[in-house]
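Re: [ENG-882] Designed sequences occasionally contain unexpected residues at chain ends

Forwarding the minimal case from QA. Structure tokens:
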């Protein structure tokens, strides 16, 4: 175990003991007893309860048992709410027996929440021992809304230290691994949510996203997610590692096992002001899509996409064409600028605020470059960038390196102007030029990455960061699974004319990161993206995409157990 101060270590050990004790309250998972409940979406659960076929207590018991099983497999749970959940289910059953009325559209549905969302009486440590033993005094706005709709929180889930990584490890609760293969990461920062949902340990989840944190873990674990645009869902009562930072807006959003369940969340949450009154005053808007939609698609962006990720995009486009929709290949303007803008703005204080919560905790290895690289003197970074561009022929990494670091106010404002100009460029060269309804894009260049990869492969997030920079609503849909034959490396990848350092790590050398044999059977997803403020349209287009791809592709409730090799 990392050497760190006794007080921090004691707090971490106490939190883990508390978690173990509370998990022990659960019934043991039984496939015959609990399995049928796990094969239902959140919407189907409500329907079965309404028809008197199930009770909320039966549903909660099944998901509590399964949550423990999922945790034992992946280490995904932080806070355990089983005692309260059982009582809430009993209360709902009593209420329904007396009135025959549902509490709301999530009556009796077990939900989970990323650790940062406050729940009265429970910590929101977000991976910092210094936040342990500081229970929240009130529920986050989104928790209040979901409870009022009849949902029952059963657990909170793990996050990476600082919540600024697409891995999921911290000193308080340890590492969460991928539910399909433990040598790979579950993604981050909403990684615990994705792992739990992929194993049917919850019926609906809540995460957040500032650079891909809803979409990357959903893709790695094979579930559905939706990143709303800014100002649609209240963020009040949510822990934040960079309070006051608004240059790139963090948003809360749903994670689940069907598009329908994501939509149910948005119907409940959109435009409800809560305690801040800081939202766009627009409730969920029902709309009807045109019969024929026009999609743009691309597979390569900042980094050359792997064969598996390229295939997922092309298969999605082909499926949409087969349903009568138009799909055209597009090129996104200036990928380097979009990533530089994100890096330049997010590092403007040298990540000092981001890292301040670590205190005496050990630094997770995934944050080594962020913690130490951005603090280097500017002349050293400029020299390193020059060397990278001159000797390794990697202008992209060199540009990102020049973008990092502390900035005076005037320079920070200049970066904000660059962000706004990039938004104008994107709108002009993508939405206006091609008259698109939506975009189909890879979530990342890789279907998965092994644990410990974030330190050197941070730029993989460029494909999700783009849609945070331009404030587009974006959903994640699982499409297919890695096939070692279909997704083998060909000359298209081995003979890249000017591979970047990251592309060399992904596709070249004795042990490239991309290994379709090791990744066999793991999920591959796409993003479905829309214009700013068109959140409802994106959800509607996700239904279209999901339907076009077909229901028998191995994703959704009950599919983790149905895999060919569930413990491979």
């Amino acid at each position: 175990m990392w050497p760190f101060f006794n007080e921090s270590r004691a707090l971490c050990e106490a939190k883990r003991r508390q978690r173990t004790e509370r998990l022990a309250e659960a019934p043991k998972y039984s496939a015959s007893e609990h399995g049928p409940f796990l094969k239902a979406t959140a919407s189907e659960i409500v329907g079965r309860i309404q028809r008197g076929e199930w009770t909320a207590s039966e549903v909660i018991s099944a998901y509590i048992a399964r949550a423990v099983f999922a945790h034992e497999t992946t280490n995904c749970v932080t806070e355990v709410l089983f005692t309260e959940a059982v009582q809430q289910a009993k209360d709902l059953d009593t209420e329904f027996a007396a009135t025959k009325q549902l509490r709301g559209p999530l009556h009796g549905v077990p939900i989970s929440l990323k650790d940062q969302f406050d729940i009265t009486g429970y910590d929101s440590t977000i991976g910092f021992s210094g936040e342990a033993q500081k229970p929240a005094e009130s529920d986050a706005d989104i928790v209040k809304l979901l409870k009022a709709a009849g949902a029952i929180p059963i657990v909170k889930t793990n996050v990476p230290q600082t919540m600024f990584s697409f891995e999921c490890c911290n000193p308080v609760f340890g590492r969460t691994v991928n539910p399909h293969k433990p040598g790979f990461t579950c993604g981050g920062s909403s990684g615990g949510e994705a792992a739990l949902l992929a194993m049917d340990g919850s019926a609906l989840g809540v995460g957040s996203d500032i650079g891909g944190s809803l979409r990357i873990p959903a893709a790695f674990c094979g579930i559905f997610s939706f990143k709303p645009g800014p100002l649609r869902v209240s963020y009040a009562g949510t822990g934040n590692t960079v309070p006051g930072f608004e240059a790139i807006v963090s948003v809360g959003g749903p994670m689940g096992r069907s598009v329908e369940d994501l939509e149910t969340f948005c119907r409940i949450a959109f435009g409800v002001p809560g305690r801040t009154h800081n939202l766009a005053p627009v409730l969920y808007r029902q709309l009807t899509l045109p019969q024929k939609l026009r999609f743009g698609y691309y597979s390569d962006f900042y980094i050359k996409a792997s064969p598996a990720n390229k295939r997922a995009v092309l298969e999605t486009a082909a499926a949409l064409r087969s349903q009568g929709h138009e799909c055209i290949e597009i090129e996104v303007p200036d990928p380097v600028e979009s990533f530089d803008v994100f890096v330049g703005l997010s590092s403007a204080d040298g990540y000092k605020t981001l890292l301040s919560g670590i205190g005496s905790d050990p630094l997770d290895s995934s944050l080594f470059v962020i913690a130490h690289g951005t603090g280097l003197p500017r002349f050293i970074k400029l020299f390193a960038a020059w060397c990278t561009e001159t000797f390794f022929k990697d202008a992209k990494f060199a540009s990102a390196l020049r973008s990092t670091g502390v900035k005076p106010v005037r320079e920070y404002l200049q970066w904000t102007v660059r962000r706004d100009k990039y938004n104008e460029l994107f709108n002009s060269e993508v939405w206006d030029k091609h008259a698109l309804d939506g975009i189909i894009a890879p979530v990342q260049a890789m279907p998965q990455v092994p644990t410990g990869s974030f330190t050197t492969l941070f730029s993989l997030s460029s494909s999700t960061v783009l849609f945070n920079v331009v404030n587009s609503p974006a959903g994640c849909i699982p499409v297919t699974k890695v096939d070692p034959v279909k997704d083998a490396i060909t000359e298209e990848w081995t003979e890249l004319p000017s591979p970047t350092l990251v592309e060399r790590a992904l596709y070249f050398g004795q042990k490239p990161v991309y290994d379709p044999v090791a990744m066999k059977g793991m999920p591959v997803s796409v993003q479905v993206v829309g214009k700013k403020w068109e959140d409802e349209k994106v959800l509607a287009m996700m239904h279209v995409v999901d339907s076009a791809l077909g229901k028998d592709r191995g994703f959704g409730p009950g599919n983790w157990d149905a895999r060919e090799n569930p413990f491979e």
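QA comment: On inspection the terminal residues look reasonable. The mean pLDDT is 97. Proposing we downgrade this to a documentation issue.
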